Amino acid sequence: MGPHISESALAGLVEDLAGEVIVPGDPRYTEARALHNGMIDHRPSVIAQCESQADVSNAVLFGRSCDLPIAVRGGGHSVAGTSVIDGSLVVDLRRMHPVVVDPEDMTVRVGGGATIGQLDHACEPFHLATTGGRVSTTGIGGFTLGGGSGWLERKFGLASDNLLAADLITAEGKHVHTDAEEHPDLFWALHGGGGNFGVVTSLTLRLHELPRMSIVMLFFLPDDAPEVVRTFRDIAESAPDEVGGGAIYLPAPPEPFVPPELVGRLLCATLLTYAGPAEEVRDLASPLFALGPAIEVVADLPYTQLQSMLDDPPGLRNYWSAEYLTSLPDEAVDVFCERGAAIPLPAATQHVVFMQGGAVAAGADSYPQPWRTAPWAVHPFAIWEDPAMDEAEIRWVRDVRADARPWAIDSVYLNFVGSEGEQRVVSSFGEENYRRLAAVKAVYDPDNVFRFNHNIVPAG
Asked: In 3-state terms, what secondary structure has residue 243?
């Protein structure tokens, strides 16, 4: 249990919590501490599976009284694994997952432990949606607070653009409600500043009508990739805001639409998502069809199905990063394709260039998200199973970053990266924004209790 935890203190926590308290030796411990990234094997001292704001407050106060590091877990998708820390108290929010849709007000109130999938399924019967991530098992809390990039961002803005209010528990165990009128400094900081300011127990998000969703996904042999990616780029640069997507190197999945001889083979795919009918986005993609794809997928589909299309199972080894680009000239396309063709196999690794623009670029420039102005984002997403491949996969991701530097800005969407140093955090917000964030941090968490994240150090 750790040197700072007395039996009486632990008994007090058990009595105070409506949820469960799990410690080493409990048969539930191994499952409770497991994270999405199989590279992370941390052993916390106490896991507090909270069911209410009062539980969160009691857990935070317990952790501080026992001088334990405090980690906060929502979806557990952080690639750095910072939601479970050795010797820590984990404030586990997964039991706090209610999703309440108000179709008249076009809003949804989401518990801090809910996932993207739970949010999307609750909104689907009303033909409503908000920008969610591209993996359905991602926690909505960390996703939104970090900025929130997803397929619908060009139409509806980032997830954080749709954040209307939040409730959180501070490092002193106090409840704070924030919105544009109440604690506006904190509300501003939550638009990209992550979990630095407290444990967010619920979020209220704006919803949008989404009656139709469709995709065109085309797979090409790698030799055709440079022309394919250039064509995709040209389509994207003039596409309406209803269109999202990216060009992706990936091993062909074992799906019914993939011929057996191509399963597991490295291919270059283009994905166009569309808030509208398939026939319209198919017309937009006609220059790509002219290049002779090996596999064609054109479909109207529910948004929930699109959101889970790229899900990968938990427990695999993960290492990700990103660079945001001022442009994607032919030279950058060639470099992207060369590195895509060099993905270490066998693995489930993906090499992606996402289109931005639309409502992302047109959104609020006052928030601490300088990366939103970049029209392109390169996202090397290494996923593999064999620990013997660790060095090769990590090196490949770092090589992608180095390749992109001639066109890259300093700022990056931090949810896409792991632990890459303090300067990476500062530059991603920009120095002026970082100073302002640090001042907010000093008000709500002056002792830097919530530091297991892309950390903002309190001013002073």
From this structure: strand
